[in-house]
Amino acid sequence: MICPTLRIATRKSALAVWQAEYVAAKLRALYPELSVKLVGMSTQGDKILDAPLAHIGGKGLFVKELEQGILGGDADVAVHSMKDVPVELPVGLQMMAILAREDPLDAFVSNHYSCLDELPLNSIVGTSSLRRECQLRANRPDLQILPLRGNVNTRLARLDDGFYAAIILASAGLIRLGFSKRIRSQLSLDQSLPAIGQGAIGVESKVGAYEINSMLGAIADAETTACVSAERAMNLRLQGGCQVPIAGFAVRQGGELCLRGLVGSQDGKHILRAEGRALIQDAEILGFQVADALLEKGAKRFLIY
Question: Which of 101, 241, 112, 246 has the alpha carbon at shortest distance from 167?
Fold first, then answer.
């Protein structure tokens, strides 16, 4: 091994650090002689908390500074939540490893109610995800959906302070940070189709960094990689971002992948769904096919180009 020290760029939130440490532990288990250093960075998404992501540039704001750290030589790789990574990466960078996925479902978190159906009429629910808002409004048009930004601890504190009757978070983040008991129930795939890449961790690196990329390839999970590749291909074809409610979730069934996709309006009054199946090796083709099916149903009128 030529790379004695690996510098991992990460956001400074508890969840981001957990994910970076998780990747570091995977690498150390395979390469005991490897020294790993975390390089904490602040992103625009972390700094601007008083506006919805859709209004300030989308989830890509959580990865740009980390990518610049790699390109500028301050780090060798960056660890991301795959749901935060734009479908098109900067020239010279690649997503070298996607690790096994944690629970991909959305979590219903409340101190007084056990599920979405139990919420009283006109209850206040917190989320800043247009995808979640769209599907919540489709299921419960009476709910008041209010913005909720910040890290996991901040969001839970806002709930505990009584600002919301319930909040919706990714199950994966809660599980990873030891907050599984805060999950009162999970929203089904029909209630809330997950975000593209939700629950998966990705490691981004430079194209041509052969020794580093060889190490990263050893920790990649083939099944999750195929599923996320299908989801991201769907989004690439749609050219969707945080400004539009888009969901996509793929699962392996035998030697095939099954992909479900969704595009809707923020008010939840219009939701288009499509799904498809293909061999695992045709993950990207499957993503394009499901996107084309959504476009044929009229998804273009909801998309912002």
Answer: 112
Q: What angle do CA 60, 178, 172 make, to 5 degrees?
A: 40
Sheet holding 166-170, edge to edge: 144-146, 124-126, 166-170, 106-109, 185-186
* 194-203 confidence digits (pLDDT tens): 999 999 999 9
Asked whether the beta carbons of 103 and 172 are under 8 A apart, the reply is yes
**Phi then psi for 87, rounded to 5 degrees?**
-70, -20
- pTM of the complete model: 0.91
List 76, 84, 103, 106, catalytic entry: 84
Q: Average pLDDT, stretch 139-149?
A: 96
Is the sign of the CA dihedral 9, 83, 90, 279 positive or negative?
positive
Task: Quickly tell me which residue has 């990518």 as its tokens.
Answer: 67
- What the block records as the tokens of 297 is 């149903």
What is the distance between the alpha carbons of residues 43 and 51, in angstroms, rounded to a whole number?
15
Q: How many CB atoms lie within 10 A of CB 93?
A: 17
277, 256 in Cβ contact below 8 A?
A: yes
Please give the Cα distance from 149 to 134 (Å, whole number): 17
Convert the pLDDT of each residue in 171-193 to its tens digit.
999 999 999 999 999 999 999 99
Return d(Cα 5, Cα 293) in angstroms, integer.
Answer: 46
Domains of the chain by start residue, with CATH: 1-99+200-220 (3.40.190.10), 106-186 (3.40.190.10), 222-305 (3.30.160.40)
Lowest mean pLDDT among 42-56, 64-78, 83-97: 42-56
Give the integer Cα–Cα distance in Å for 55 and 37.
34
Question: Is 142 one of the catalytic residues?
Answer: no
CA-nearest of 19, 14, 227, 192 to 107 is 192
- Cβ distance 95 to 202 under 8 Å? yes
